Amino acid sequence: MAAKPVFLTPEGHARLEEELNHLRTVRRRQVAERIHQAKESGDITDNAEYDDAKNEQAIVEHRILTIERLLQNAVLIDNNPQGTDSVRLGCRVTVSDSEGGESTYTIVGSAEASPGDGKISNESPVGQALLGHKVGDHVVVRVPAGTLSLTVVAIG
After folding, report:
1. Alpha helices in the chain (DSSP H)
2. CA-CA to 25 of 20 to 30 Å: which in 47, 85, 101, 146?
């Protein structure tokens, strides 16, 4: 079975590469040192420091595997598409709601989504609903809190 593509902006890809490098070169070494020190302090059967270090090692190794899998399936998206007339991955889109409020989102892959920073996933209800629409299009989105009525104001 083919793995699901992970859509990443160049910046998101670089951040994951940087985190992976840090985990491999710094964190692994730090955790190994903690394990070594805990072993030297005596019997490891009832050693909370040793158990904690081993748990941390498992977390670090899991994160390394997760990032490796994300990068292996990465598909880079243009986060600054020029001349596009419809909403697509990488676009910044400004929408107005039925109460006259405006919001600006960047449509990114789920691995980079950060709604607080205005980055919404192409798999989120709002992201899915906006994809393919043009300036002036009216979009109705069902979200957990109810229904949103949005109008695409600008695409950039």
Report:
1. 10-22, 28-40, 48-72, 125-130
2. 47
